[in-house]
Amino acid sequence: MVATDPKTLFLESVATGEQSHNSQWMAQDLIRVINGLEEGNIIVAGAVTDSTNANKLTWKILEEYFPYYPTKFFHGCAAHGLNLLVKDIIGAPKTRKQGRANRPIWKVIHSNHLLNSRLNVRTL
Question: Is the pTM of this model over 0.70?
Answer without folding.
Answer: no
